[in-house]
């Protein structure tokens, strides 16, 4: 997709910048702004040079504009110590590979609007990072452009009646839950401590509480949003921006930049029940039976949450099943877990615990700095045989990668239940394209972690082949389902296309609020609103095209 032509708004933005910021080509003015920020002499000159080094491109101009307007406290060039720290803050190794022209740390929605204007005026690409937990390069990092970190917009405040938690886009789930626990409250949110609110909620957001309340995106009272033209608006289900509100419930970063999430709270005590249990091969059948039993009885006790993973310990070739079990009350003997309690586990970490500690425990097996690839498939939940087959496929393809240093291949299985789908209908529904008639179905995550870039092609080819095998199996069994969960999808999967009729509505809303396609072209990272003609290549052909371009 080509870059948009210069618009009337771009011309206005250029004029506005000329009136309100130092001339970006004027080193003296930019240096004066840095000095005013507390950096003097040679240090000021070096900081400016680190942004301007070896280039006269538009992003140099954009970064110099930001530096002149906001100073070194908020803008970092490549020679600044804060720059490297920012890059190292990404979870996956691939996300650390792009080299932004500068790093910007805004503190207000208006400053976010300013960076969008500056980027448009200079046709400089940008990306926003909430928690930095996306796995593929460019998801929330802008190579040669402006990477915007939301870490200084991480506030958590309660409304006077404590029914709404207003949360900045840089907040992490462990911090959110910890803050709300002081008031015996919680929100529907993520399950991993160091994931940010931004990507999780706008991508959908499966939660420990989803069987009771739906996904995270279904429990947002309103969004504060920066639009492509720089306006800051509040999107609610009953306002003039109700279509924008709908689009943000699963539409990703395609229609605006959310600068505040106003989430509905609910009463939640300091403790609940949860943890993982690990099973070896001889217990797989019983573990699958227990998983199916809980899934079929969710209506009787929606306080439960579970997922089941199959993985290979590549150090010794051992095949494992890992169950994550949660109950939203501090109760160890909930009847719905009777089946699980009969399955012998080699490791059992389930216990009464806090919500914060459960998210920390789930983050521990996913260390920062590894190479990562996520893929997803959905399958209709017809019977237990499907899960047996999924386990077999996991081990078949995992064995092909077992020689790769650091490799951790796994497949995680979750049920999208009837109660979850019913809760998605609240406040006008969400953008995911799902309905009650879709359920129940399985959302699958194929995850791969490894150490070295030299193994990328083999890993991605194997992953693509694994996805193709699962799709073939599901079609052969009459269990195929189109839905792709954005937060689990690879860069080679067409997420928005999987939303069916909702995809067209999303594109229409995006064109309404962003007619120049700013969030499609200048913010190209993550899952975009691709038109149908761009979706013709099979997944493996997209992988091959990626490597052909990368190594051309």
From TrEMBL:
Q: Which range is the signal sequence, renumbered to this chain?
A: 1-18
Report which superkingdom the organism of origin falls in: Eukaryota
| Record flagged with keyword Acetylation | no
Name of the protein this chain belongs to: FAD-binding PCMH-type domain-containing protein
Q: Which PANTHER family match?
A: BINDING OXIDOREDUCTASE, PUTATIVE (AFU_ORTHOLOGUE AFUA_1G17690)-RELATED, FAD BINDING DOMAIN PROTEIN (AFU_ORTHOLOGUE AFUA_3G02770)
Q: Which GO terms describe its molecular function?
A: FAD binding; oxidoreductase activity
- The UniProt record lists the FAD-binding PCMH-type domain at 96-268
